Amino acid sequence: MPRARRETGETRAAQSTASAAEIARFAAQASAWWDADGAFQPLHRINPVRLRFARDHIVGHFGRDAEAPRPLRGLDVIDIGCGGGLLCEPMRRLGATVTGIDGAEENILIAQTHARDAGLDIAYEVALPESLAAEGRTYDVVLNMEVVEHVADVDAFLAASVALLRPGGAMVLSTINRTLRSLALAKVAAEYVLRWVPAGTHDWRNFVRPSELARGLRGGGVEIVEIAGLVYRPLSREWRTGRDVSVNYLVFALKD
Predict the structure, then answer these.
(1) Distance CA 101, CA 124 (A)
(2) Which of 48, 55, 111, 133 is exposed most, by the fewest CB atoms within 10 A?
(3) Could you tell me which of 16, 201, 199 has the C-alpha nearest to residue 103?
(4) Is the pLDDT higher at 13 or at 132?
(5) Is 170 exposed, middle or buried (0-12, 13-18, 19+ CB in 10 A)?
(6) Is the pTM of this model over 0.70?
(7) Do 47 and 86 contact (CB within 8 A), yes or no?
(8) Cα atoms in the 13 Å half-sphere on the side-chain side of 145
């Protein structure tokens, strides 16, 4: 297995948007990434919905045939905070050339192993977006899914992410709104009542309002063109997109 490309400690300390505590938290759970009934069960449940949202909007923006076997062929995609590769693998199967980056080497090693066993060619790196932006790398599509609420500096993180996006490119984001409803549902209920995720997974103060997200993106010439709620239906036990963005929400944005 190829060694994961990684930054030095000095480089990370000098320019990091990452939270060391958050990286350590997810690194400690790395072995559970592909356990659909484990610590990352909520991500497995929402993955089909967020993947469908991303695929449909990317296909529409780039004028691709949604019915084609690999509609994203020829597009360069980067998944920031890729974890174990839950989004990287289906994006590769859709034809995209995929790069996945994460601040935790443990996550990258799990992602590399799973992709290799699945016969998928995905470039995984232990890196942060600002380091790749400093190298001048750019992509057609940037994915920021369930990561914005875990970074140390949201505005700096968004600036680095925007720098990775080519003119005319698309960014897809998924995060949690900072509202009283999200405090009750995404924090208290999800962690302490339903126990969907381990206690301490989220800090409500780090949740990001759509207006804050829009402001951070706009500074780099990226405009939000659609926001959709990611809503749980308890009767059917399914996640769907909807109009309610008071808790989880999805964003599709374009660079001038």
Answers:
(1) 6
(2) 48
(3) 16
(4) 132
(5) buried
(6) yes
(7) yes
(8) 29
